[in-house]
Amino acid sequence: MEPFVACNECAFPMCRPCYEYERREVNQACPQCKTRYKRIKGSPRVDGDEEEDGIDDLENEFDFGSRLG
């Protein structure tokens, strides 16, 4: 897995599956600086996410694209 920047505050690197697990099952915060993770495009929404006006990301939220073809 290739790490990406999961935290916008301290640039904590984490693989995407771990980021999504932390948001879904743990405390939704960076393990380094404790800032609440923001939703990254393509990741499913979790309770507490801010509403994103004008963004329709349902295809990525439910991962429909990977099942096609």
TrEMBL record:
InterPro entries: CES_Znf_RING, Znf_RING/FYVE/PHD. Residues 2-54 form the Cellulose synthase RING-type zinc finger domain. Pfam families: zf-UDP. Residues 48-62 have a biased composition (Acidic residues). SUPFAM superfamilies: RING/U-box. Residues 42-69 are annotated as: Disordered. This is Cellulose synthase RING-type zinc finger domain-containing protein.
